[in-house]
Amino acid sequence: METKNKKLEAILWSIALPGFAQVLNRKMFKGLLFVLLEFLINVQSNFNEVIMLSFLGRIQEAIEQTDYQWLMFYPCLYMFAMWDAYKDAGGGQQPYSFFPLVFAAYVVTVGCIYSSNFRIFGVLLGPVWLPMLFVIPGLILGFLIRILLLKYTLPY
Q1: Residue 123: strand, helix, or coil
Q2: CA 1 to CA 74: how far, in whole Å?
Q3: In Å, how far are 3, 55, 107, 138 from 127, measured between CA atoms?
Q4: From CA 91, how far away is CA 83, in angstroms rounded?
């Protein structure tokens, strides 16, 4: 399979469920560990219930159902599993190429923290929609920092 397609496939499987791409890349232990961690965090944070309530527009109920102590682990696990899958598929060879996903994990975690009371144009988005929205500024920030580092540091 072409490397570009393999990288895209890895990212898409990892978006579907952390660990799937690692299994696809024949990294069984790591893949099963990610699946297990995703399952543990998902169950402990009530995330499936929170997702359903959020899609139904019942944001306050979603907030009440969320165990934030567990949900805070999810962005870092999710982004790291994507990055790891991408690397295993042959991507991420350029300097600082990990920055966008790292900063997305940071900013999405901040989105989780504020999701119970942060409003955009008066709308409470809750623990699913606000963190998802925060992926965009996190990726942009990561890309910008990467560009600055590439421009102002010596090559290694």
Answers
A1: strand
A2: 31
A3: 35, 11, 13, 16
A4: 9
Per DSSP, which regions of the chain are E strands?
A: 119-120, 123-124
Angle in degrees, 0-180, between the axes of helices 74-88 and 3-16, rounded to the nearest 10: 160
Q: Which residues contact 150 (CB under 8 A, 6 or more apart)?
A: 95, 96
Rounded CA gap, 105 and 110, in Å? 9
Residue 121: what residue type? F
Higher pLDDT, 74 or 4: 74
- What three-state secondary structure class fits 54? helix
- The DSSP bridge partners found for residue 89 are none
Q: What is the pLDDT of residues 116-136, one digit of tens each?
A: 999 999 999 999 999 999 999
| Six token digits for residue 143 | 């890309």
Tokens of 142: 């990561």
Where does residue 147 fall: left (phi above 0), alpha (psi -120 to 50 degrees), or beta otherwise? alpha
42 Rama sector, left if φ>0, alpha if ψ -120 to 50, beta otherwise: alpha
How far, in Å, CA of 88 to CA of 24, rounded? 10
The CA distance from 81 to 75, in Å, is 10
Residue 105 is classified by DSSP as H
